[in-house]
Amino acid sequence: MSFNTFGHVFRVTTWGESHGPALGCTVDGCPPNVSLDETAIQYWLDRRKPGQNKYTTQRREADQVRILSGVFEGRTTGTPIQLMIENTDQRSKDYGEIAETFRPGHADITYWQKYGIRDYRGGGRSSARETAARVAAGGVARAALAALAPGVTITGYMTRMGAHGIDGPRDMDEIGRNPFWVPSAAAAETWAAYLDELRKSGNSCGAEIEVSASGVPAGLGAPVYGKLDTDLAAACMSINAVKGVEIGEGMDAARLTGEDNADEIRLGNDGAPVYGSNHAGGILGGISTGQDVVVRFAVKPTSSILKPRASITKSGQPTEVVTKGRHDPCVGIRAVPVGEAMVACVILDHLLLDRAQTGGQRGTIG
Amino acid sequence: MSFNTFGHVFRVTTWGESHGPALGCTVDGCPPNVSLDETAIQYWLDRRKPGQNKYTTQRREADQVRILSGVFEGRTTGTPIQLMIENTDQRSKDYGEIAETFRPGHADITYWQKYGIRDYRGGGRSSARETAARVAAGGVARAALAALAPGVTITGYMTRMGAHGIDGPRDMDEIGRNPFWVPSAAAAETWAAYLDELRKSGNSCGAEIEVSASGVPAGLGAPVYGKLDTDLAAACMSINAVKGVEIGEGMDAARLTGEDNADEIRLGNDGAPVYGSNHAGGILGGISTGQDVVVRFAVKPTSSILKPRASITKSGQPTEVVTKGRHDPCVGIRAVPVGEAMVACVILDHLLLDRAQTGGQRGTIG
Amino acid sequence: MSFNTFGHVFRVTTWGESHGPALGCTVDGCPPNVSLDETAIQYWLDRRKPGQNKYTTQRREADQVRILSGVFEGRTTGTPIQLMIENTDQRSKDYGEIAETFRPGHADITYWQKYGIRDYRGGGRSSARETAARVAAGGVARAALAALAPGVTITGYMTRMGAHGIDGPRDMDEIGRNPFWVPSAAAAETWAAYLDELRKSGNSCGAEIEVSASGVPAGLGAPVYGKLDTDLAAACMSINAVKGVEIGEGMDAARLTGEDNADEIRLGNDGAPVYGSNHAGGILGGISTGQDVVVRFAVKPTSSILKPRASITKSGQPTEVVTKGRHDPCVGIRAVPVGEAMVACVILDHLLLDRAQTGGQRGTIG
Amino acid sequence: MSFNTFGHVFRVTTWGESHGPALGCTVDGCPPNVSLDETAIQYWLDRRKPGQNKYTTQRREADQVRILSGVFEGRTTGTPIQLMIENTDQRSKDYGEIAETFRPGHADITYWQKYGIRDYRGGGRSSARETAARVAAGGVARAALAALAPGVTITGYMTRMGAHGIDGPRDMDEIGRNPFWVPSAAAAETWAAYLDELRKSGNSCGAEIEVSASGVPAGLGAPVYGKLDTDLAAACMSINAVKGVEIGEGMDAARLTGEDNADEIRLGNDGAPVYGSNHAGGILGGISTGQDVVVRFAVKPTSSILKPRASITKSGQPTEVVTKGRHDPCVGIRAVPVGEAMVACVILDHLLLDRAQTGGQRGTIG
After folding, report:
1. How far apart are CA A1 and CA C135, in angstroms?
2. Contact at CB, B298 and A253, closer than 8 angstroms
3. Would you state the pLDDT for residue A306?
4. Which terminus of chain C, N or C, has fewer Cβ atoms within 10 Å?
5. What positions does the entry give for NADP(+) binding (chains A, B, C, D) (predicted)?
6. Do A284 and B106 touch (CB under 8 A)?
């Protein structure tokens, strides 16, 4: 049982609290001889970093990563890679009030009930800060994928922010041009106005994030409990505040008929199968088809809001909770790089698992 | 890495193909001294058994379970419990055609690509028959829960069949009175007509199943990767044909505001917390709250239909696939007892894990 | 936690009691396309089978293995392989007396204390019959090694039986020519006389078994807790009645100086390193060197003897235990094929793990 | 697969190289509410610290541990505990020569062959410095045992140094009074003279360490692969340079008869079983008996000696290796606290596992 580890061969163990001296992760099982340095990891961390615009928490963390082990002369050695990020902008006094009070929608009450002790400064392990360690690990996974499966590209983007989805066609080039990673200039504008209003009223909203991985070779995954989608579902559901995970058609698959849902197959010019559609999200029977792997997850609205909500204290007294502190009105925005990181880790892990069992050999068609 | 195992302390390893001599599972880590016999397990298997009405496959399997180890004089011994179900109604000749052809929407093509070999008789490991072993394991989990946490009740039911959801209020008493396990007499009638039509036209449809577990003690689960919902998501996504998993509000959480989503807390008369709503689905920060644990998943329509779909053969030739055989027009119906079984296994597993780490002690309120 | 599973990628889960209807194992993670049938596995089981001569228990078990899954048309499919052996010669009445009495040196008392229930017919899971499942799994591992690393040869033999070791040089050709698998005709003769005497006096003796694996490629294993020798030690110590495990020089390494212990290195004609000696037993820093991997373990004398030993009953009364039944005067004899099987499983598992992490690539010398 | 993790519920993942900026470990699964601070861990690290007398390496490391997470206001929170030790006295230039040369008896050659890259500064992960992280983890385990099973006492000591064992009776009070942790004043004197001579001649020697754990409750462990002794064997064999592991009678069990080896049982005045001897080393059928758990392991002599040994370079040239640097003439001395730490971790882990499966309930006698 690994409470704080995910992955089978490429294993990531995260550690650290929101308001402790540091947080980080140990990445075990990375292949040797992968080019890696702090700059490569920092690139991805900077995408997740808070305080970059008015839509995310104003806590200002440099999120500077240090590699403490496992890399020698710019390449991985095959030994565990320790990544450490120091916390520099804790303001624990912001949390004085919640030491005795359970914030509705937060893990305060369940942590207390389970452990009988809780680091009440900012949510401890259940803080979104834990996801910085995931993004750092994702940076290692991306470096290893670049070496082992150079065709793989992993892109995350938002497809819904509270009341608003995306109307009209998606333009993937827009993703990097707005603070919401949304593939639509029009949506970016609508969403900005919506979020401004929410923020001013002290409210928050949920989000839907999609991560698409192209270039994933056919044959990753395994039947039954070793399914690629099983691990993707677990990886995404393990992100703070996530309440739903979908592959391809997702929950809407329940509404379809077999005729509509079947992705027809023909043979492409290069001898590889070509599919007429991708309802399956790139995975059949738990194994990748070679199409884009498409994963979607929903992040609930942060419960840290200025609107008063009824709750109780540790001593059982009724109270009202109004969360001031520094919080994200839509924490889902910063979940985009986290989702990408999780998908990168899972795909690399299954690439390594597949090398173990099949040696990477493939049944041929034609 | 456990390709065919799930669970941490209560571990289930399933084995067996659709058309081999038998299938089954090894259940390891069950507490000792739990009352158990074949009748208790058979009860749950009979709920999943095909051929019981015109809405499920006409393959007639007795699905008779045998306990080969781990039970002595009517009680578990703490050693591995082997459960075996013999296949008795294979008609492998039904599958002669698919030996050389990849059925769209099935795992035929990905299994071939990955392994370079495939037991083409009825889908092998990716057949819904594998889920019989899960239901058997779920029977063991239920027996252990009855001994260790007698208040836990786990109920599965369908909430959508293709185009049709449930209109009007739910009546949980109806679940056992119709072939769809739907908590609504009116829906049962509508769905029956709809499914008749689909069946006659040789089509199929998807389904949405909800499993609700009441009486789950607060404190099960763990932060980060050991979340109760992480394991529930993995367990449900590992079921054949599942494409989405939701906890509580699920994907709709993306649409809510923080004000709407917060489950307010007060203290009940018995000194335990009482929640004003259950958007969280009974889980906060990965740990159970004591409310009902609510999980939902979507099953895609079976791809085995009479409608011709374009595909290719192993030698790369274009072809059209029409699946005759004996198939479920809505395979999601039989996924209800499977979902219940997976939820039972996960809850028991986390009950045991919690005993390991905390000894079952709890932080007190008041 | 896997109470009854060993291995990482090639995972074996055994199940079954000495006097239940059957026992067996699930082998998960075997590479696909390995030639395998029941005859190949039976070959190894027949070597372990009891009742073949007067030196082993007179219980007559056919130990006939059935493959229930995972093999299709003579080749493995990559899905779990279920191997079942039915028990046919139980004489449970032999065990009536021990239901209430704890046999000294047996697990009767600890099983009772731990579980509060125990299948008292012949030791249940702690019976040497459990090792039949290991030998069957070892047969699968050997078949996979034959396909993936054809140069590997694994040979087990006894190097001590109670008071007697091997005097004079070893002759490996003798191993198959005597009932003790001892590489010395002279020792075989001495040991036979010694064991006859022990058996007649109702006593038993311990044994030392060595397993040597040649042709193991350099580079298997990993530093720290993933060491090849760590897994070999665990695998051998998990065999019933084993009390010590050694690699290469073993416990005697404590007596040596650094000068004596260093295995000097030179370059062979084929460009591979050649070692002047093999104190290391083929493993340096947890990773195979390419030399023979040499493992040794000690099996304690069976405690089932005719000599009366003091003990207590479940109700706490003092008693004397004399074990009649059908037992091995030197149970270590049948541990030889078991040790071979465990070594085969561990080497295959590390071969697969190495493919995962390094893809089988190697640093070159010269 | 966890290359750098050991334990099932109480899981320790170590990281860091001998000459990197730091090393440490993540301890996951520790029960909450255990009193813990840096002083408590430092106590055990100071016992292992090098440079304390002329018999250990003159590298002077403060080995100062920092707790970076998982402890709040002096108590564990149930979340991962990160322990970091900075390296302060690296003299990597000592290792310039070995960048291109494989030292006989070291892992230089196998690391190179496996990974094609190697941190050649001081052995990287295979350096004895990695064991500092184990000792730190052991400090956490001891703190948890003090809270959960206060009767457990774990004591390590040397029983052999090269040519010399212990003559005469053991006096456990002497263990803390000499630099070798040997339970005999006379042996301490003999060994000191012997080691002086070895050190002057630039040679080294092996060692045998015994760890005895008293007060371990009956019932820890599990049959087959979850045996307490299986995990003890793996834990000890995973320590650098260990070549053999024994439980109780160990390898000598091969020499005994069943009559001699049986530990007779009677009922003590307090209603608990009392054993007439402890050949079993406190473990029967993989489960603790309540007697002292006795583990022994052999450490080979360090290969870093002034005596020239033949070897080859990376380019395949023959060479002679003379290791100057700062090394332990008997590295086994510092393995005593390491062995204690591993045993503490394993016993705690099995205590937690037993709570998971049985809830700590016991079958009663009498």
Report:
1. 28
2. yes
3. 83
4. C
5. 48, 54
6. yes
